[in-house]
Amino acid sequence: MFCGRNFDVIVVGAGHAGCEAAAIAAKLRCDTLLITGNLDTIAKMSCNPSIGGVAKGNIVREIDALGGQMAINADVSAIQFRMLNASKGAAVQGPRAQCDKFKYQERMKLILEHIGGNLSLFQGEVVDLILESDAAAGVKVNLGVCFRSKAIVLTGGTFLRGLICVGESKIIGGRLGDFAAYSLSENLQKYGIALGRMKTGTPPRILGSSIDFSRCDEQKGDGDPCLFGFYDTRPDGFVPQFASQLFLAIRGGQNSSDLSNLQRSCWIDHTNASTKEVVEANIHRSPLYSGEITGIGPRYCPSIEDKYVRFADRDQHRLFLEPEGSDGDEWYVNGLSTSLPFDVQVDILRSVPSLRQARIMRPGYAVEYDYAPPTQIFPTLESKIIKNLFFAGQINGTSGYEEAAGQGLIAGINAARNSMGKSALTLDRYGSYIGVLIDDLVTKGTSEPYRMFTSRAEHRLLLNHGSADVRLLAIARDFGLLEGDRVARIERKLERINFWVNELESARIGEHSVADCLRQNFGKISRGILPEKFLCESQRVIDEVLYRVTYAGYIEREQRQIAKLRDMDSVKIPSNFCYDDVRNLKAESRQKLKQFRPITLGMAARISGISPVDIGTIWVYIEKFRKI
Q: Helix (H, G, I), strand (E, B), or coil: what is residue 50?
């Protein structure tokens, strides 16, 4: 086998996790190789061509705050912007963008090609790892070539032993039209890494000209769009490479009516009793219910079969008809994911008023694939079994582009730092949604595709999407993740936020402070009571100041709770700590602690089934262990 040149970091797979991992490793000046089975499908949006949403949008903004690519790529390729939960508090609002899927992947490929001399791209299937002394040292590719490296990031997506099902028909592949990776799965198991099976699905794509939009409700984009990138902390007039007309119009301050017209609308229709009859009459033909698929699917994004089984009392389910691009006429039927046979899919579409003449361009299908239960990785995303090997994305049991990209970014940072002999970055769950995501995976594991929600973050009041750049400033600065003078710009922004929070708390209106007046109205801002100089600040500063002032009491309470929890996270559990020596520890607790191997007392406390009494007992023994 021919051995190519050596690298610092090798990233396997070029989905959303792989792209972020490769880009950040190269930015950190590591000689990086990105290997994928098909260079023309880099960052392909296999499912819904959208980015963001509730909690997911927060992750995308955090990716931008930590030097990642997804935010700007979504902004530039977007064809519609909407703020979800706009009528609710800012803590649960989520920016979302419908993207042109073709421009999204095309631009990401261009970015990776233009990122500089530190990143190389290579097309091929990785079939095995090169191991030396239980540490990853390189990869073998199916083309008779191998590459060596100091660290490896695996982002297998749905391709590890991927199996596509449309009714009784089965096709080997991780995505319709693509291959599946069998050898890599077999070798990972050979090296002691446990694998399980999960399932995801996608709806049929249809021709837009065959939709009767007169029977649908229109859903327009926002007139004042919220972009994912923090452009107020970039140079004035900053425009990313390959910017779109819509992006330029937003950044140029074009009026809201023009912005609304520049965006493509989505449309809403519903299934009905006729749809239910079709599904129920053919449920035995679904591989999900015939036993052909054993993998567990996403609870929060069920197929149409699942919906009518789990919610048998309901006839109607909402469908979103979403364009897949700005120029083409292929549409995504969001809410109609299915693995039923093609003829049944046709009948389902015929039952929906707006889709009676719909012409299917691509059928819906389910895909079953391997994943590695994430309790086998550390919070750094490095494997507990094989050193220098990192996992990110759906291989860790997650679902969604945003969750994958967030993991890819952290895995890429840590693989790069590993290769340089530097300490790793570990995000706690108190400062970011990415931290919540990773902490949940490594301490609790997952038996179904994990999807991020605001409800998963117990301190979500501190994690509003607009604060991502300032709350992650210290990490971005200390780990060198941002380019140019952006750190200095964020520092100045934070100074202005802190100045005005103090100013509004001290400024008086009669016997009350301006801040108290804002809290009494709880978000109903009367601009007349705000200082004129304050209103001259950037809108991003104004929004964050008003948020902090309005929720000040709640924020202070959350911060006090977090301070106590961080005390537990600061107590390290020695790597050679023996739980068998801990008397009075329940057998179930001992078994879980030996399986998960938490690295701090706080992580141990978050493992399901570990009681406060267990934690107290372990703490006593840790202190004894230190004195030995």
A: strand
Contact 301, 255 (CB under 8 A): no
Question: Please, are residues 50 and 105 in contact by the beta-carbon 8 Å criterion?
Answer: no
What is the average per-residue pLDDT within 188-199? 96
The domain boundary, picked from 363, 394, 412, lies at 363
Calculate mean pLDDT across residues 288-292.
77
Per-residue pLDDT at 177: 83
What integer pLDDT is reported at residue 90 of this predicted model?
A: 87
CA atoms within 13 A on the CB side of 447: 1
Does 523 share its domain with 619? no
Dist CA 600 CA 613 (whole Å): 16
Strands (E), 78-190: 78-84, 94-99, 119-123, 126-132, 135-141, 145-154, 163-166, 169-172
Q: What is the CA radius of gyration of the chain?
A: 25
Classify strands 126-132 and 50-52 as parallel, antiparallel or unpaired.
unpaired
Q: Looking at residue 598, which CATH number applies to its domain?
A: 1.10.150.570
Give the CA dihedral 431, 409, 593, 459, nearest 10 degrees: 20
- Packing angle of the helix pair 342-350, 273-282 (nearest 10 deg): 170
